[in-house]
Specification:
It comes from Dipteronia sinensis. This is Actin-related protein 9. The chain has helices spanning 2-6, 9-16, 70-87, 135-145, 152-161, 170-174, 201-219, 242-255, 266-273, 311-324, 339-352, 465-474, 479-486, 501-512, 534-545, 555-561, 574-577, 579-585; strands at 20-25, 29-34, 41-44, 47-50, 167-169, 182-185, 188-189, 192-193, 231-236, 260-265, 279-284, 289-295, 298-307, 362-368, 376-382, 489-492, 524-525, 553-554. Helix 9 packs across helix 15 (534-545), helix 10 packs across helix 11 (339-352) and helix 12 (465-474) packs across helix 14. Helices cover 32% and strands 15% of the residues. It is α+β, with helices and mostly antiparallel strands. The chain is built from 18 helices and 18 strands.
Length: 587
């Protein structure tokens, strides 16, 4: 303790964070870095595998996509008109003559040279392996410098010799042309493993391992032979089920070969990332929004809420809005079949969308990405840019129907991390060291009864953001705690960067509180760091300050016993795990 009284915080982080790898898992992106880093690598959570199957699918789970029904379309238009009346803009089908009144431009500098970085086109990924430098290559370069160009036969020979890359990861995987022989795999979708009849459990786990191993080797420069010198901190969303957490621990300890690991929830990590102890954490990610309240650094499970929409749904809504207003160029934009289009829409959303009254327009450059062709540029005037982010409060505008949730039968967990199951006999998996992932429900049989709800489902709310925050806080029960939480709302995740979001959350949450509740004040706290990385930073702080490491799981114990029925030591849910470092932090 004398050491802790004299040590400088930066020195503590440098010394204890050099061998801690923090892994913050998301549906669209994964954030990985050493605990001593200021910011992690933020990488799209996907891998493209070379395929020779016919017919070729550009995206592994594209067959699961569902269409917008007529009823959903009517509800979407009704939601748009409700938002329009609040923002004081014309209704969806209201024709306004251009000269009837001057249009209120929210951002007219969209095509300003100073903002060109917003409008830079992306290029297709080079899917061929890099040719090694050789004396032959240098000799051909000499011939070119002497004015002797390569013959056509030589060029054709070289192109035929080039090999496709077997695996392509991260943003490069999203920028592969649909004409190339690759299939994009997204192992996590809507806050869960992306298990389906087209994407089996074993493939999901293999893809997770491949992506994480590539990041560790290529970005953090930690080869497999040295990982026994490192420990891992898994910062997981509240949406994950027990079995998913167990499988990820197996990947980290058995396959990636970390010496030890610990699991923390994003909500808890976010509290420590911003130096708080009591707060209502609203985590707005790309595909899921989750809410949980914490008191004195301990999560309150009764307050947990999950909303099945996020930033990507706002981007889809932005495209629908522009097409309806006929401001979108006549180009083939398909964010499901061409992930490159989703990247472009996300950039447009981040650059131009904000919440404020009045008409918000912007002059921007939209790019078209036709198969294998260079990007085409289309200068256009986007309109109603303040409508799509309001879908957070009116989710029927977003129509979050793309990709149904995974079959819940897969998540029936006979070895519950919260309950002792030693007295019950169930079929067990085979030896974990064989590299396979056999499970109780695999293959097509798990789709026989789809959809199936587990005994204790993770509840998804069908309400807007303000109602969900209010419901979460009121579920805590005590009026003194409720008042404190309503004044300690913390927005994290990429969507939290949306301009004008904080005052709207404060106003709409205040109006959502029932009149019989003695609460008259709501406040959203400003984040002390980038909201996208708050949970990752909190995970790093938790790992550095956890001197006792009583809740850490060691590789040998996990491989030998796992969650063994009847064993004295069981892995507990992260609600239990988080109490361990608190013993030190609160002392």
């Amino acid at each position: 303790m004398d050491y802790l009284k004299t040590v400088v915080p930066s020195q503590l982080i440098s010394e204890r964070g050099s061998n801690l790898v923090v892994i913050n898992i998301g549906s669209a992106n994964i954030r990985i870095g050493l605990a001593q880093q200021d910011t992690p690598f933020n990488i799209p959570h996907c891998v493209a595998r070379r395929t020779s199957q016919l017919p070729k699918r550009n995206v592994k789970d594209q067959m699961l996509n569902s269409q917008v029904t007529t009823a959903q379309h009517v509800e979407r238009e009704r939601a748009y008109d409700t938002i329009a009346s609040l923002l004081k803009i014309p209704f969806l089908d209201e024709e306004v003559a251009n000269n009837s009144f001057p249009r209120k431009m929210g951002r007219v500098d969209g095509y300003n040279p100073q903002n060109n970085r917003k409008d830079i086109a992306f290029s297709w990924t080079d899917v061929y392996e890099k040719e090694p430098t050789s004396s032959l290559a240098s000799g051909s370069g000499m011939n070119e410098s002497l004015g002797q160009p390569e013959s056509t036969d030589t060029k054709e020979f070289k192109s035929n010799e080039r090999k496709f890359r077997e695996f392509i990861y991260g943003e490069e995987a999203l920028r592969i042309s649909p004409t190339e022989p690759y299939c994009l795999h997204r192992p996590i979708r809507r806050g869960h493993f992306n298990v389906s009849q087209h994407y089996p459990v074993q493939q999901v786990l293999e893809d997770l391992y491949a992506i994480w191993d590539w990041i560790l080797t290529d970005k953090l420069h930690i080869p497999l032979s040295e990982r026994n010198l490192y420990s891992a901190i898994l910062v997981v969303p509240e949406t994950f089920d027990n079995r998913e957490i167990k499988e990820m621990l197996s990947i980290v300890l058995r396959d990636l070969r970390f010496s030890s690991a610990v699991v923390h929830q994003e909500g808890l990590a976010a509290v420590f990332g911003n130096g708080l102890s009591t707060a209502c954490i609203v985590n707005m990610g790309a595909q899921v929004t989750s809410i949980i309240c914490l008191e004195d650094g301990v999560a309150l499970p009764i307050s947990e809420k999950t909303l099945p929409f996020g930033g990507e749904d706002i981007s889809r809504c932005l495209l629908w809005t522009q097409r309806h207003h006929q401001t979108w160029p006549q180009i083939r934009t398909d964010i499901l079949m061409k992930p490159m289009d989703l990247i472009m829409l996300n950039k447009l959303k981040e650059s131009y969308c904000e919440i404020k009254e009045g008409e918000v327009d912007a002059v921007a450059v939209v790019h078209s990405y036709e198969d294998g062709m260079p990007a085409g540029s289309h200068k256009t005037r986007l309109t109603a840019l303040n409508v799509s982010p309001m879908g957070l409060f009116y989710p029927k505008l977003l129509v979050p129907d793309v990709y149904p949730p995974p079959p819940r039968s897969w998540y029936n967990d006979y070895e519950d991390m919260l309950e002792d199951t030693w007295h019950t006999e169930f079929p067990r998996r085979s030896d974990m060291s064989d590299g396979l992932y056999p499970s109780i429900n695999v293959g097509l049989s798990m789709w026989d009864s789809y959809p199936v709800l587990p005994n204790k489902p993770k509840k998804e709310e069908k309400v807007g953001l303000a109602e969900a925050i209010t419901s979460s806080i009121l579920a805590t029960g005590r009026i003194d705690l409720q008042r404190k939480l309503f004044c300690s709302i913390q927005l994290i995740g990429g969507v939290a960067l949306t301009g004008g979001l904080i005052p709207v959350v404060e106003e709409r949450v205040l109006h959502a509180i029932p009149s019989n509740e003695a609460i008259d004040m709501v406040e959203v706290l400003q984040s002390r760091t980038n909201p996208t990385f708050v949970s990752w930073k909190g995970g790093a702080i938790l790992g550095i300050l956890d001197f006792g490491r009583e809740a850490w799981i060691h590789r040998e114990d996990w491989i030998r016993n796992g969650i063994h029925i009847g064993s004295g030591r069981k892995y507990k849910d992260s609600y239990f795990l988080q109490a361990q470092p608190m013993c030190y932090i609160n002392s």
